[in-house]
Write a structure and sequence with these properties.
Helix content: 25-40%
Largest sheet: 6 strands, mixed
Order of helices and strands: EEEHEEHEHHHEHEEE
CATH topology: Rossmann fold
Strand content: 25-35%
Bound molecules: adenosine-5'-diphosphate
Strand order of the largest sheet: 6-7-8-3-9-10
Radius of gyration: 18 Å
Distance between the termini: 19 Å
């Protein structure tokens, strides 16, 4: 982790979000404060419905909060136009959706290349870099497959390669090991952890999987729309990335 005077990648203050209105209103966020530092792997845990997905959607610029602020790399997302926010997100954030969100009619190589193409990288170069990332997640032999030809675990690995291919400073993952058995989950976490440390990226991971808790630098415990406490992992809790 970085020394304490390094600027945070994510700074959330007083975030609130309510879905619906009147009798059917659901307060998903009730005033969330959160900081995530470069090189830090933060896990967000808590019971279903406590607001985890809402929080990471606001952090990733996919959803607007009602009140409060969310700054990424010092940029307040609310100050950007919709178009600027889409561009900012495309450049700085990698997102691993729980449902993968792969494009079914594209090969997995093309799927992984999408963030690069959106950022204006030439097709040949985008495909070359996508191939390298698919190699890193052990899918080099499946580059021509389409998503439906892969298992859930393989699709999850494609989604992770796609989230990392454009070298974002912040990676946000919703349940990245939910479709993986223990061995494959540990492999993915080793990879995510080493990428965070080596490249000084910040990672925010929503998870229900206690087997991966030891990979966190910090765990934020969420309940009923607020972060109740954050606990620091000690060095002896952290598994080897060998
Ligand atoms: P978690 O990820 O912790 O399961 P969510 O952020 O998905 O929690 O949901 C928080 C609360 O907001 C829940 O009560 C959920 O039912 C509600 N909620 C989430 N998304 C919507 C939506 N699009 N419309 C209405 N209510 C929603």
């Amino acid at each position: 982790m970085e020394p304490l005077d390094t600027p945070s990648v994510v700074v959330c203050r007083g975030l609130t979000k309510t879905y619906g209105a009147g009798d059917t209103a659901t307060k998903a966020l009730r005033g969330v404060d959160l900081d995530v530092r470069p090189g830090e792997l933060l896990m967000l845990v808590g019971p279903s419905g406590c607001g985890k997905t809402t929080l990471i959607s606001v952090i990733a610029g996919i959803l607007d909060q009602d009140r409060g602020s969310c700054a990424l790399f010092g940029q307040d997302l609310a100050r950007l136009s919709h178009r600027e926010r889409v561009r900012f997100r495309g450049r700085h954030i990698g997102f691993v959706f729980q449902s993968f969100n792969l494009v079914p009619c594209l090969t997995i190589l093309e799927n992984v290349a999408v963030p690069l193409l959106i950022n204006g990288v030439k097709r040949a170069e985008a495909l070359r870099r996508a191939k390298r990332h698919l190699d890193q997640v052990g899918l080099l032999d499946r580059v021509s497959a389409t998503p439906t030809q892969l298992s859930g675990g393989q699709q999850q690995r494609v989604a992770i390669a796609r989230a990392l291919v454009h070298d974002p400073g912040l990676v946000v993952c919703d349940e990245p090991t939910s479709a993986l058995d223990h061995g494959a989950g540990a492999k993915i976490m080793d990879m995510l952890k080493s990428l965070a440390v080596k490249n000084n990226r910040a990672l925010v991971i929503v998870t229900h999987d206690p087997r991966i808790f030891p990979y966190a630098d910090r765990i934020a415990h969420m309940d009923d729309g607020v972060i109740q406490e954050t606990s620091l992992q000690t060095v002896s809790d952290t598994p080897s990335c060998a």
